[in-house]
Amino acid sequence: MLILTCTSKLRLLEGTLRRRLPETLPVLGAVMTINRGNPAGYEVLVDSWPEFKAVLTRPHREVTSDDSDFYTNRYTAYYRDLGAYRALLGSAVNWSQAFCIHGLQDGVYEASRDISEAKEVQLEVSRYFTYLHPDPSSMPEIRLDPAVRLSSLDISHIDLVNETWGLGGNDRSRRYLTSLIRYFPHICILDAASRPVSWILSDPFGAMRHGYTLPQHRGRGYNGVLNNLLAKRLHTLGYPSYGHVALDNYPMQRLQERQGFQRQPTFCHYILHHAALQRPPTLTPSPAPGTAPA
Predict the structure, then answer these.
(1) pLDDT tens, 28-47?
(2) What class of enzyme is it (predicted)?
(3) Which residue, among 163, 171, 255, 178, has the nearest Cα to 214 in the 3D structure?
């Protein structure tokens, strides 16, 4: 195992990961974040260099201060050799912490499950569709209702964002979302009283996430506008424009497809380990082909 700290090697790795898209999406996003200032505090581990067999990003030890904070203790993985990935999982992941690990490849869940069983810890796993836009610059402009305006979130909005997120509502999620608002691209729509009514953020791995519209403002196309604009902004910054969509979120799936995003052939797995979890491991079932509502 080698921890990459050299700027030139990290940039070479970024180029290599970019050539192997889309499977490398989350790891590429993390490496790009590191190369552009590393506000999230991640480090990169490889099985070997330059002919790496596996890459794992993990929280930098200096910023990993809360062992029960799975929002901060986040790992991403890409591999060409499943055995090398298993080795990194065993040596580089702190299994005494709460954490979240994710990747786009088959075998991510199974390898994590096998190690968790050997260590007698429990995992909770969800799967998402991943959508990637091949060229956001080609997306047509979308007009916005003149009664509202585009803006950015600030720290005064954090409680609203935290309370409306399904995994939020606590101090750790508040701290995590605050870092996204401070350091990563995002966009929101404000009403006439300058209150946020719809927003979308990007995370430390370059993915578009945490999109939300207040219930009383839905049905006006705000989500589509923000999805379009953030995709273009990420593309301008050099990032791939992609995001993850829940398997049962059919409206968002249709929106992505209308805007030219392409569903990737493999699921994104989010693998959560939390010391407080007492439930057995679960895997979100995928719908049968053709069963999504029209």
Answers:
(1) 999 999 998 877 788 999 99
(2) transferase
(3) 163
